[in-house]
């Protein structure tokens, strides 16, 4: 298999071959990161027809769509039935694996203060549930204030940026995962309905459905899991996998997807994908942008640009800035782009961001 064929399969599974009259739950089958401003909204609008900012907010508040901390404890928009799968089911139960998930700061605190990572997570998750009980909705600062009165001081290091003590960042984020909390359209935390705990190995199947062919290391990176944790879940589904060669490397996908990989549909049209879009996640980056310098510019630690796709191929980078009531989108072309098609997408993105009008600047 060559890179183009793999990307075509992943593009189709990401829902980007063509916009369709699909519900937002279906459009968010592969969870969409909401780290950057309006990222999840723009990602879903690249997949679903006629999505507006108001319809997106309504979907969050009615439960048609869930926004929550899930994989890597990062905020994503996802289908409501998948909250437990991508959330609690992937929280490690082994102390060492959980320590890897919770990160370096929590590992250091655990060593200094003498607590177990699981005890800390249970304490903060219980405090989070109590804070959100009886239908309460709290923004991040209000939630931190509640946790300060409910959580042991050993779990609340000094934060220079905030100028206060609060629960270590990865610990409180994973506590919302463990508590099954979600966010409303005003970005307030509230109790969720994560449902029955599914088998965690289902996440491997889903991952390969979107990012196959891949290996267990790719799954570990995507899910924010310790390698031993990822390997164990991978081994549980190994009998359902087919091995393929991608260049000189071995990789795997679900056996049932072999035909779809061999004959992926062709994509048409232009899409402006936001930073953090499911299609721009780590498994696709080296294939999408083989040039290391381009890859470094497109996938920055912070303030990444968006990607312009034309017929499924990377054709440019884009950034937006507000200019009065307008949204000005600067596009750096790296392939042939039709201005009329590009302007249509620019206007779509501007309206979704709440601007009255979009202005295209070609760089």
How would you briefly describe this protein structure?
The protein has 363 residues and is α+β, with helices and mostly antiparallel strands.
Notes on the protein architecture:
The protein has 363 residues and is an alpha+beta fold. Among the domains are: 104 residues; 93 residues, no CATH class. The protein has 17 helices and 14 strands. The strands form five sheets. The protein has a five-stranded mixed beta sheet with strand order 10-11-12-13-14, covered by helices on one side. A hairpin with a 2-residue loop joins strand 11 and strand 12. Helix 8 packs across helix 10. It is globular and about 60 Å long. The two termini are 35 Å apart.
Q: Could you give the distance between the termini?
A: 35 Å
- In terms of DSSP E residues, the strand content is 15-25%
> Helical region count?
17
Determine the structural class based on helices, strands and strand pairing: alpha+beta
Largest sheet: 5 strands, mixed
Average pLDDT reading: 95
* Unreliable parts: none
The amount of helix comes to: 40-55%
Main β-sheet, spatial strand arrangement: 10-11-12-13-14
* Number of E-type strands: 14
Shape type? globular
What gyration radius follows from the Cα positions, in whole Å?
Answer: 21 Å
Task: Outline the secondary-structure elements.
Blueprint: H1 3-13, H2 24-27, E1 32-33, H3 39-45, H4 53-62, E2 66-69, E3 75-78, H5 83-86, H6 95-102, H7 104-113, H8 117-131, H9 140-148, E4 158-159, E5 164-165, H10 169-179, E6 181-183, E7 189-191, H11 202-211, H12 216-223, H13 227-237, E8 241-246, E9 249-254, H14 258-262, E10 270-273, H15 282-288, H16 292-298, E11 306-310, E12 313-323, E13 326-333, H17 339-352, E14 357-362
């Amino acid at each position: 298999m060559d890179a183009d064929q793999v990307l075509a399969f992943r593009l189709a599974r990401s829902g980007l071959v063509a916009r369709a009259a699909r519900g937002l739950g279906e459009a968010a089958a592969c969870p969409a990161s909401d780290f950057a401003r309006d990222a999840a909204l723009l990602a879903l609008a690249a997949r679903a027809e006629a999505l507006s900012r108001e319809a997106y907010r309504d979907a969050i508040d009615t439960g048609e769509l869930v926004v929550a901390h899930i994989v890597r404890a990062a905020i994503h928009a996802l289908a409501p039935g998948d909250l437990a799968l991508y959330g609690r089911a992937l929280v490690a139960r082994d102390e060492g694996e959980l320590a890897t998930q919770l990160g370096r700061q929590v590992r250091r605190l655990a060593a200094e203060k003498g607590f177990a990572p699981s005890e800390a997570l249970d304490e903060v998750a219980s405090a989070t549930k109590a804070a959100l009980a009886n239908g309460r909705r709290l923004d991040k600062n209000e939630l931190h204030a509640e946790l300060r009165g409910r959580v042991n001081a050993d779990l609340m290091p000094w934060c220079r940026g905030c100028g206060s003590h609060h629960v270590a960042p990865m610990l409180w984020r994973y506590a919302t995962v463990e508590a099954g909390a979600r966010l409303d359209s005003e970005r307030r935390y509230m109790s969720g309905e994560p449902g029955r705990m599914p088998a965690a190995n289902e996440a491997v199947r889903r991952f390969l459905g979107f990012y196959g062919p891949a290996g267990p290391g790719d799954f570990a990176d995507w899910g924010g899991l310790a390698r031993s944790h990822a390997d164990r879940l991978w081994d549980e589904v190994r009998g359902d996998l087919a091995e393929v060669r991608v260049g000189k490397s071995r990789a795997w996908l679900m056996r049932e997807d072999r035909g779809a990989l061999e004959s992926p549909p062709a994509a048409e049209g232009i899409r402006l994908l936001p930073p953090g879009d499911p299609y721009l996640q780590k498994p696709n980056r080296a294939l999408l942008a083989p040039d290391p310098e381009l890859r470094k510019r497109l996938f920055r630690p912070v303030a990444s640009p968006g990607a312009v796709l034309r017929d499924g191929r990377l054709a440019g980078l884009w950034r937006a800035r507000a200019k009065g009531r307008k949204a000005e989108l600067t596009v750096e072309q790296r392939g042939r782009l039709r201005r009329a098609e590009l302007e249509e997408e620019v206007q779509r993105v501007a309206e979704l961001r709440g601007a009255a009008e979009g202005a295209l600047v070609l760089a």
